[in-house]
Structure formats: structure tokens, C-alpha cells
Write a structure and sequence with these properties.
467 residues; alpha+beta; Immunoglobulin-like; 5-stranded antiparallel sheet; 13 helices
């Protein structure tokens, strides 16, 4: 994929971050960092880097093998979820059924683990570590929700590969698993603070009035993002969790916050932006572009070293001494992928809108900065990988002439719905849209349905300046 937007710092960032991510690959292993204790493979963070590379059209199959082979005692269910999700995403983007079948001994082990381990009284997994840094064993919503989503999506993968009987078996288990999880969540939610969704189920975790007031609250903040990413909570509970994060100190400049133990490596007030990827993707799925852009620009403002775009697992919010802010164990591939994932989804989104495990909706330019379409500016995306094949589009602003001109090349496989949006600057309004001689229905956000366009097409949006 090639991306061109009229903001030099964004252009410098994505190119630098792709190069920096490739520089941290070691013998087909996606290492988390280099030259420090993180110079090795991690499951969640490594998979996030591979997902980002897939979205940018890069080869990840050799790297995926090392992720499948990796294990860490005490986090087996958490790892199984990430592994199966990676396989589903990889198949969606490569259509390489032969590779998925070659990996069968590896992913079958994870499928068996998920299906055969739901042995507690609630029909969920036995206790697992709260997270990698918190060894306390809990009935983990994080692990159960990840595994449910992975099983559901991988069932759809097998269905697409023609393995109908096994696909149906996994889908049936996943449907029942989801209901068990939701029952446990409902029992564990505190009426006094309904937006709080505990990671430790069965009443073992209380709400945090100020999320970063304690170490446990800080780690809850990291894990809650993963739960959001599964999409399991439903509209009301998901909205409540987003509100809770936004209103109880979970964010700074749109970046996920934590309060680590102060050591040589960490300061007292930190952001851990890489763990907010799923928070931002949830905002974008819900079509809340302005909040997502806060996170995007927060990362540029505070999440990287200035002009050199090096990320750490965390960074202090204020200077510690004359030498400036502290970064925790830079460089960081998951920090790189956090930004790359955000930028890709500002421009190109492919969603499973009907929640059946199969992507069905393509949305283009849904969350771009409105400044990118000031008069004379252009947004261009070429060969963007999607679950439907590669797509390209461009938007060229001629506001002073009363128009924005677009080109759209649809993917090879038609999604159920394809949408293109023109986000003009404040003070401007999109009035109408045409593709050739065909008038297109326009919504209040400047969005048109381009599902019927199956060849490369030119579109014209008429605009006016508001009084």
C-alpha cells in the first residue's frame, strides 16, 4: 500500500515506522524491541505488529509461524486467542488456503485448548494470570473474550476454505461460549458503576474511581482495551466502558495511561499508547472519528521521539530532567504498529457489520483529518489490502471551485456495502455527489454508497462554504 496525505509529519511517520518495524525482525521472529530485556518475541504485541503489516500489504507468513510456536506458561488461553485471530486475518488477506492447512497441527492445538478447557462452574476457562506482569490467577474476561472471538472468526475461516463440518462445530461452540461470557459479565458488574467491566470475573474486582490511581487499575486499563477489541459487550455495555475510560482518567491526549512502579526505567506518570489500539478501532467501528483523531495526533505529539519516530512501551508525560522525557525500552514494534493501524483505519476500514465473523463492509476515508481536504490538497491511497482484495482511491480538493473530485477503484470481490466519505474542513458542506451521470445519495457526513461501482470510477462532490 502507498499512502499520500498533505501533512508532512504523517508521511514521515508512516514511512519511518514501517522501516523501523522491519529492522526489528530477527530470523523470522517479530521482536518487541532491541538491545534491552524486550529484545524477544511476545504474543500479543508481536501479533499486533503482524496485523499492521498485513493491513499495509507486507508479507507476514514466515513471521506468523514463530508466533504460532511461541508459548509462555500461565497465559495459554490469552495466547490461543491471538494465534487463531492472526490465522483468520492472514487468510482473509492472502486467501492462502494451502498455508493455513500447512499450519493445521499448530492451530488445531489451540482450538482443542479452547474447546476442552471451559471447565469452571460458569462454563469458562479455569483461572489464568491477570496479565503478563500480574501473576494473580483470575477468571479472566480478557482470555475468555479473546478466545471466543478467535473461535468465532476461525470458524468463518474454515467455512470459507470449504471445511463446513468443522466450521459448524466451532461456530456452535463459539455461540454458546459467548452467552456464558455475557452471563458472567452481567453477574460481575457493579450497579453503582455500570460502565466498569471487570477483567477478574466472579466479583473479584471492584471499580477504580481513578483508573491510574493504583497499579492494578493501570493494568485493568491495558486489558480493558483487549476486551473492547473483541466486540463481545454489545452496544450499551460497550458505550458504558468507553465512557468509563474517558471519564475516570484512563486516557491522556487519547492515549492509554498507566501509573507504573517508579524505577530506573519508568517515571511516575506515563502513557502506554500501544495498548490503546483496540480502543481506537472501537471508536472507528462506531464511527466516532473526532475522538479517534485525538488518539492519532496524541501519538504524534507525545508517543514518539520528535522527528525520529521512535516509540517505547511507555513514555513519561513531562520532562524528568534537562534531557527531556523518559521512554521505556525503545524502540517498540507494537508502538509502531499502533500508529500504522490507526492511519490505515482513518483511510481504509473493512468491518464485519453483521457480526458473523466474515467482513462485509468497506468504508473509505471515514475518519480523515478535515484539514487534509483544504483547497488544493489531495489524499491518495493505492493498492490498499482489504478482506475483499486491493482497492485504491483519491480525493482532490477544489473547494474554491465548489467541488471535491474523487477516483475509486473497487476491490475484486464486492463487499455487501462500500462507502466513501468526504470530510471537508469546518465551515464547508458537501451538497451532492455524482458518479458519471448517476446521482448518488449523500448523508449528512458527506458519505455516499459506492457499492454499485464495479469499475474504476470518477466521482464529483459539490461543496459550498457556509455563511
Amino acid at each position: 500500500m502507498q499512502v499520500s496525505v498533505p501533512e508532512p509529519v504523517v508521511m514521515d511517520a508512516w514511512r519511518s515506522l514501517l522501516v523501523g518495524t522491519h529492522a526489528l525482525i530477527r530470523s523470522n521472529r517479530m521482536h518487541y524491541s532491541s538491545g534491552n530485556q524486550y529484545d524477544r518475541l511476545y504474543q500479543a504485541e508481536g501479533c499486533d505488529a503482524l496485523h499492521a503489516l498485513l493491513w499495509w500489504g507486507r508479507e507476514v507468513r514466515p513471521l506468523a509461524i514463530s508466533q504460532l510456536d511461541f508459548t509462555r506458561k500461565g497465559l495459554e488461553f490469552h495466547q490461543a486467542g491471538h494465534k487463531l485471530q492472526l490465522m483468520a486475518h492472514l487468510r482473509d488477506y492472502t486467501r492462502d488456503d494451502a498455508f493455513i492447512r500447512e499450519m493445521r497441527p499448530r492451530w488445531e492445538k489451540e482450538v482443542r485448548l479452547i474447546i476442552n478447557s471451559r471447565t469452571n462452574a460458569e462454563g469458562l476457562f479455569p483461572r489464568e494470570q491477570y496479565c503478563g506482569d500480574i501473576p494473580t490467577p483470575v477468571y479472566s474476561l480478557n482470555s475468555n473474550a479473546k478466545a471466543w472471538r478467535a473461535l468465532r472468526d476461525f470458524a468463518a475461516t474454515l467455512e470459507a476454505m470449504g471445511e463446513h463440518e468443522e466450521a459448524q462445530r466451532l461456530a456452535t461452540v463459539a455461540a454458546e461460549f459467548k452467552q456464558r461470557i455475557l452471563v458472567a459479565v452481567a453477574k460481575s458488574t457493579r450497579p453503582a458503576m455500570p460502565g466498569f467491566v471487570p477483567i477478574a470475573l466472579s466479583g473479584e474486582e471492584e471499580p477504580y474511581e481513578t483508573i491510574t490511581g493504583t497499579k492494578m487499575g493501570s493494568y485493568w486499563n491495558l486489558m480493558a482495551n483487549y476486551v473492547l477489541g473483541t466486540g463481545i459487550l454489545g452496544e450499551q455495555r460497550e458505550r458504558g466502558l468507553l465512557d468509563y475510560l474517558q471519564q475516570h482518567g484512563g486516557l491522556v491526549m487519547g492515549m492509554t495511561r498507566s501509573r507504573p512502579n517508579v524505577t530506573f526505567w519508568t517515571g511516575p506518570h506515563s502513557a502506554n499508547p500501544l495498548y490503546g489500539t483496540r480502543y481506537v478501532l472501537t471508536l472507528l467501528r462506531r464511527d466516532e472519528p473526532d475522538r479517534a483523531l485525538v488518539s492519532f495526533y496524541g501519538m504524534l505529539a507525545q508517543g514518539f521521539t520528535r522527528d525520529t519516530f521512535i516509540a517505547g512501551e511507555g513514555g513519561s508525560l513531562t520532562p524528568l530532567d534537562a534531557h527531556g522525557r523518559l521512554f521505556y525500552c525503545p524502540p517498540n514494534t507494537a508502538g509502531n504498529s499502533h500508529f500504522l493501524t490507526m492511519l490505515r483505519h482513518l483511510l481504509v476500514q473493512d468491518w464485519d457489520a453483521d457480526d458473523d465473523g466474515k467482513p462485509d463492509t468497506l468504508r473509505l476515508a471515514f475518519a480523515t483529518s478535515q484539514r487534509w481536504l483544504e483547497d488544493g490538497k489531495e489524499i491518495k491511497v493505492e493498492r490498499a489490502p482489504t478482506a475483499f482484495g486491493e482497492t485504491s482511491f483519491s480525493l482532490r480538493s477544489r473547494l474554491n471551485a465548489g467541488e471535491v473530485l474523487a477516483e475509486f477503484t473497487p476491490p475484486a470481490r464486492a463487499p455487501k456495502q462500500a462507502l466513501l466519505r468526504v470530510r471537508v474542513p469546518d465551515g464547508w458542506q458537501v451538497l451532492s455527489a455524482r458518479a458519471g451521470e448517476r446521482d448518488l445519495k449523500l448523508d449528512a457526513q458527506g458519505t455516499v454508497d459506492v457499492s454499485a461501482l464495479r469499475e474504476k470510477s470518477a466521482l464529483r462532490f459539490t461543496v459550498r462554504k457556509l455563511n
